[in-house]
Structures are given as C-alpha cells and as structure tokens.
Amino acid sequence: MKKKYESEMLQVIHEDMMGLHESGIISDKRMREFDKMCLTQEPKKTRKTASSESRPAGTVRNVRISAKGSGS
C-alpha cells in the first residue's frame, strides 16, 4: 500500500525518520507519532446494509420464523 503524505515537506521528514527508526535511533512509539503527523488519515469505509434493490436477482434473504403465537 502506498503511503499518502500531508505535504512534500512532511514526506521528506517522515522518510528521514523511517531511516532513523530502522537503524534503532528512534523508538516504535516515536515513529508512530511521526506517522500520525505526516501521513494523511483516509476516511474509514462504511459498511452498507443490503437492501432488496442491491441484491442480485434470485438471492434469498435469511429469515427467522418463530412458532410463538401461532394459536395451535
């Protein structure tokens, strides 16, 4: 997955910090702080609920049937 940066300057800083992190000069915690500062936050994908219009023809929806109140 390609990283997306807030700006070109933050990209350069982040890449430099990645080098320092790989060499053990900065900690994992500090590197995560640089990730938060420099990388864009992509919106989370929301899960859509399936409606009858979005289901392909011939698909069946699971339905629970209860015997309560059947009068027998």
How does the SSE layout of this entry go?
Elements: H1 8-22, H2 28-38
Helix pairs in contact: 1-2
Give an account of the 3D structure.
By secondary structure, the protein is mainly alpha-helical. It has a domain at 8-37. It is 36% helix and 0% strand. The chain is built from two helices and no strands. Helix 1 packs antiparallel against helix 2. The longest helix is centred in the first third of the chain and has 15 residues, at 8-22. The radius of gyration is 25 Å and the shape is elongated.
Going by helix content, strand content and strand pairing, the class is mainly alpha
Radius of gyration: 25 Å
- Helix count equals 2
How much is the average pLDDT? 76
Distance between the termini: 60 Å
Record field, number of beta strands: 0
Percent in helix: 25-40%
